[in-house]
Design goal:
The chain crosses the membrane at residues 93-115. Keywords: Coiled coil, Membrane, Transmembrane, Transmembrane helix. By secondary structure, this protein is mainly alpha-helical. It has one domain (2-121). Helices cover 92% and strands 0% of the residues. The chain is built from two helices and no strands. 0% of the residues are buried. The model has no long low-confidence stretch (mean pLDDT 79).
Length: 122
């Protein structure tokens, strides 16, 4: 019985670890994509400045559009940070719950075995 419980605990831990790894990989991928977009945005701004002769004289509409795009990317990055914190917090709580549940189940089994032994002796 203990081996089965140990196997189940290990299975739950493996699932949790796999889930955390997948989440971290997804977050890293999203952050990399956001960095690529930011790099592309900076290159576009630099190319536009070079096209005008190296002087930063971009028209008002382009400045507004560039600022809007940058604000949107920064908002996306902030939302990604919030999501990553929430996911990591949720996975920690899930692991803690599995640990507590396993401990409680083990206590019940030990108590049952001890109680059965006491009744047989009596």
């Amino acid at each position: 019985m203990t081996r089965e419980l140990d196997a189940r605990i290990e299975e739950f831990r493996a699932r949790r670890s796999d889930s955390i790894r997948k989440t971290e990989a997804e977050l890293a991928e999203m952050q990399a994509e956001l960095e690529r977009q930011m790099t592309a945005f900076r290159k576009e701004v630099a190319a536009e400045a070079n096209r005008i002769g190296g002087v930063m004289q971009v028209t008002g509409r382009r400045v507004v559009a560039a600022e809007k795009r940058q604000a949107k990317l920064e908002d996306n990055f902030a939302a990604l940070e919030v999501e990553s914190r929430a996911l990591l917090r949720r996975h920690r709580l899930l692991g803690f719950g599995i640990l507590i549940g396993s401990a409680m189940l083990s206590c019940v089994i030990v108590f049952g075995v001890a109680w059965g032994t006491v009744i047989e002796i009596w």
